[in-house]
Amino acid sequence: MAEKVEIGKISHFFDKISVCVIELTADLKVGDKISIEGHDNVLEQEVTSMEIDRKPVESAGSGESIGMKTDKPVKRGDIVFKIVG
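Given the sequence above, the corresponding C-alpha cells read:
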C-alpha cells in the first residue's frame, strides 16, 4: 500500500498556464508521484518536469520553490504529498 509524505505547500497558481509554485519542505525529483490535496480537490500526478527561476531542474530540496505544470487547477494553501511505496 502506498504511503503519503508531506513535502510542501502550494504558494501560487497561474490558472492561464496551469502552473503551480510549490514551497518544498522535503526533496522532490522528476519521476516522483505526488498528491495535491486541498479544500475540495485531490490531484494525483507524476512530476514530469519542474523549474527553479524558469530553468529546468531534475530535483529540488527543502527550502526551495519550484514551478510545476498541473493536470488540473489547484489552490494556494493546498498541501503537496509525495506518494511512496
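The mean pLDDT is 96. Try to locate this feature in the C-alpha cell string yourself.
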